[in-house]
Amino acid sequence: MTPDVFLFWFLALLIVGSGLAVLLFTNPVYSALSLAMTMVGVAAIFITLNAYFIAGVQLIVYAGAVMVLFVMVIMLFDIKSEVQAFTSGKISGAMKLIAVGLLSGLIVGGIIMGQKSFVGELSKDAAAQVAEANSAKMKRAAGADAATKELGVALFTKHIFGFEALGVLLTAIAVGTVALARSRGGTHAK
Amino acid sequence: MPSSSFLTDISLNHYLILSSVLFVIGMAGVLLRRNVIVILMSLELMLNAVNISFIAFSKFTQNVDGQIMVFFVMTIAAAEAAVGLALAVAIFKRFKEVNIKFFEHLRG
Questions:
Q1: Domain architecture of chain A: domains with CATH
Q2: Looking at CB atoms within 10 Å, which of A100, A138, A142, B91 has the fewest?
Q3: How far apart are CA A21 and CA A32, in angstroms?
Q4: What is the interface size between A and B, counted as CB pairs within 8 Å?
Q5: Residue A128 confidence (pLDDT)
Q6: Average pLDDT for chain A
Q7: Any CB–CB contact under 8 A between B100 and chain A?
Q8: Distance CA A183, CA A185 (A)
Q9: Does the interface predicted TM-score (ipTM) exceed 0.85?
Q10: Closest CB to A15 among B18, B67, B89
């Protein structure tokens, strides 16, 4: 067992375990801490996939900013643990669990069985073809610095419209969030 | 019983299975939990699961476009968390409660 393989299985267990902990803890503070652990695990998975810049952004944006937001709101609410954390009703709860199980079975089964389908071909033949087509581009982009440079060039040339649209969206979100936080009850105003 | 090559050869399928398992955990959280904040956390889990599959496809096809899509998804996720938590704070100020059972009618 090589270090790469061990790292993948370790991170996969960490991510799935702490992801389950998010929904099994009834104390929201523990849920938030488990979510932070999941985010760090996902960032490590990104590093094993050679996406160094995205891993850094994941750590800063999710494990930093978004988690601070969650923890601040939880402390603002001052809730220790909930009275009725999970959905009530045996039948509806069982139906939801069955739906979740069916979806997971379908997805995992589809991925494993689909060796001749899109996924299977992509992971073998098409992946080799596409990789060959892109190999000249990626040969220039060997190493972490060059890969990040490649990412920046693609972001600011090919995807510049999406980048600018995100700027507009973030401005709208910032203004909307402040307006929402300052509203005096909205439709429930007395 | 998985064969030994399943355990020792990490392929695209492994990352896709990890991604789908994490997505399903997030979906179970959204369906089963009743705390607004935990529901928002589960949404973040689902978005992260999608990010894993984007990065895995990006690596195994040697195409950088997947990483740019992840960049966009992260921005949208942060914005969504900000708006969702602002709504949760507004709801908590009005109802003094975070359990969705108590404000499912969305009226005063």
A1: 1-86 (1.20.120.1200)
A2: A142
A3: 10
A4: 239
A5: 64
A6: 80
A7: no
A8: 6
A9: yes
A10: B18
